[in-house]
What we know:
- This protein is of the alpha+beta class.
- It has a domain at 43-62 and 138-301 and 346-447: Outer membrane efflux proteins (OEP) (Up-down Bundle), CATH 1.20.1600.10.
- Helix content is 65%, strand content 13%.
- The strands form two sheets. Strands 2-3-5-6 form a four-stranded antiparallel β-sheet, with no helix packed on it.
- α2 runs antiparallel to α5 (136-204), α5 runs antiparallel to α6 and α8 (340-406) packs antiparallel against α9 (412-447).
Amino acid sequence: MPRRAVQKRLNQTKRLLAAVLVVMIASAAMIGERVTATSPQPLSLQQALALARADNPELLISRAQKARAEATRVKTRQGILPTVSLDATYLNADVGLLDRVSSGALVVPPVPGVGELNPVEGNLVGMQLVQPLINVGAWHARTQAGHAEGAARLGLHRAEHEVAVATIEAYFGAGTAQRQLSAEARGLAAARRALRQAEAFVDQGLATRLDVLNARTRVGEMEARLALAERRVVASHAMLRQVLGLDGDGLLELTDPVPEPAGQLPQEEFLPAERKDLLALEEAVKAAEAGVDRARAAYLPDLNIFARYQRIEMNQPFGFDETDWIVGVNFGWTLFAGFGQQGALDEARATEQERRAELRGLHQRARREVRDTHAWWRAELQAWRSAAVSVAAAEEALALTERRYAEGLDDMAALLRAQAEELAALTRETSARYNVLVAAQRYGLASGAGNPGELWP
């Protein structure tokens, strides 16, 4: 082969290798970007709380309700502050009826330059001010709106506390589900290890086929339990995303483990002054009382002062312009409105009674929640202490049973029973640890002693 052909073939090969290398580098870069984009970012509890405060749907609704209450209170200023309006009118008309009317019949003595009345052309510009002097209904409406705004503000504080507790529960609920998944995977590994050991013993003539069948049954059971644990992990992460207001799917990388419970319980106490929902409902009762006064004020008269300044320019047919001003007092009193006033008053009284009944019921429910959550906390703490001791004992018992089975001193039934007891102890400890945390947060929420965004106690 000529040297030139060989050199040409080498150049083509080099270009092909270079193209392949470029494609491989670009593909690796795209894969790296995809993995970076889809890989979960570490999420701490404080970051989760910050996300919930910013994007939780319930908090967004509460903030909108607070903004609406503030806007309603601003709107009530209309009944107290003056109303200033400006109006302007331009008229250009050709009225057939005026063709039959002479200017002399309208203007005495006749005005020079005034002939036919058509067309009529002119403009009117005016400014008017109305200042309420006595408007009892507006005064009570502003008081009612002020209490409603206070109720919305306190309701937002309560919603922030509830969302913080829900975030803590969802965050550590997802962590607990992952911890339970690890325990189930550990149990499955132990069951498979026992199955392999039983199969080896059967081959050696040291065990019966019954041991293998029991071990396979245990492996199947653990595989089913592992699948359910995986489903719970997915569901718990979906719940956490919902509480945080996050879109999308997939698991989150949680960095904070479930903490160990506090060693001692505080004394049971109820702090009504710290429960924002009680304070919000008290403000709602005051708003309802102001609503009754507002409805009753419909029977009273109103008194307004008004002033108007206007300028009239009549270009055709008279050709004049004038400036006028008016000042007056308006007295209005609705003596009968078809029982509308009485109906509004009865409705306001019913609303007041409803709010008072709600407040009484909330006080009773709050006291019950304090007792229930404190008793729940005490029970779960005792359960966790017992479970923590049983885990160590069950792990030691499982290790001892595995050795005894290997030595032929125990059968497969004893080994499988020890595996089940060890997994049950881990499950109890995991659940009790989470339940103690949840009960503590619920007690802080019920008693009003907890602070939003902080683990309590």
